[in-house]
């Protein structure tokens, strides 16, 4: 049963991957995993590729980990808020959100973090991965009504089979997904944390573009 579920998950995560241009290798002290970036989210894709080239994520950590929800890394919300408060003359640089029905918060989704700004604009140096939870038809029906969206049959089936965090859809930008090594990310999601969701042991990561 477990083997069948793993195969199903691998097939779902592979859908559409081969059509995309850019792939990224994440290396952590728990192992490595691979991410594909969506070409139909060009602004976030290009910002992230430039960040890799310019070492924006040098010495980066996964610094917010919540089991069944998210693994987040880069500059922390608290640090961003402190930096921006200390230098109001620099403003609050953000990237306008990008939304597409093909990009949603299934398990393995790769997105850009943000604060509660009304424009839903993303931070320039914070990323997250969805590790998610089970999702029901009733939950998806309720979210369609609340958010005024319509899930495709593919999205609905994916949520029902592997789970995710659909309540984040159309509020946070998803611009890629894990297509290999998801078990590494799931292991990271289960590490021990303090009450602020910081891992008790530092989880470092590096990134590089691969073919």
UniProtKB/TrEMBL annotation:
The superkingdom of the source organism is Bacteria
- Protein name per the record: peptidylprolyl isomerase
Cite the PANTHER family for this sequence. Answer: PEPTIDYL-PROLYL CIS-TRANS ISOMERASE-RELATED (PTHR45625), PEPTIDYLPROLYL ISOMERASE DOMAIN AND WD REPEAT-CONTAINING PROTEIN 1 (PTHR45625:SF4)
Q: Where is the signal peptide?
A: 1-19
Q: Which organism is it from?
A: Sphingobacterium bambusae
- Kindly report, in one word, the top-level EC class recorded for this enzyme: isomerase
Gene Ontology molecular-function annotations: peptidyl-prolyl cis-trans isomerase activity
Q: EC number(s) per UniProt?
A: 5.2.1.8
Which Gene3D superfamilies did the record assign? Cyclophilin-like (2.40.100.10)
Residue ranges annotated for the PPIase cyclophilin-type domain, each copy included: 28-203
Q: Which Pfam families match?
A: Pro_isomerase
Keyword annotations from UniProtKB, A to Z: Isomerase, Rotamase, Signal
């Amino acid at each position: 049963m477990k083997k069948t579920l793993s195969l199903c998950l691998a097939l779902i995560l592979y859908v559409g991957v081969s059509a995309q241009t850019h792939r990224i290798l994440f290396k952590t002290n728990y192992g490595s995993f691979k991410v594909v970036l969506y070409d139909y989210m060009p602004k976030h894709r290009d910002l992230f590729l430039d960040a890799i080239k310019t070492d924006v994520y040098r010495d980066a950590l996964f610094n917010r980990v919540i089991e069944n929800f998210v693994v987040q890394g880069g500059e922390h919300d608290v640090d961003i808020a402190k930096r921006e408060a200390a230098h109001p003359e620099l403003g609050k640089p953000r990237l306008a959100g990008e939304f597409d029905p093909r990009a949603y918060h299934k398990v393995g989704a790769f997105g850009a973090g943000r604060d509660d700004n009304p424009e839903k604009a993303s931070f320039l140096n914070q990323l997250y991965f969805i590790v998610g939870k089970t999702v029901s038809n009733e939950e998806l029906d309720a979210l369609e009504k609340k958010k005024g969206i319509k899930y495709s049959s593919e999205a609905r089936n994916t949520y029902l089979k592997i789970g995710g965090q659909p309540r984040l859809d159309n509020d946070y930008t998803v611009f890629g997904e894990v297509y290999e090594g998801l078990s590494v990310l799931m292991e990271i999601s289960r590490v021990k944390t303090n009450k602020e969701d910081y891992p008790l042991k530092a989880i470092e990561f590096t990134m590089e573009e691969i073919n």
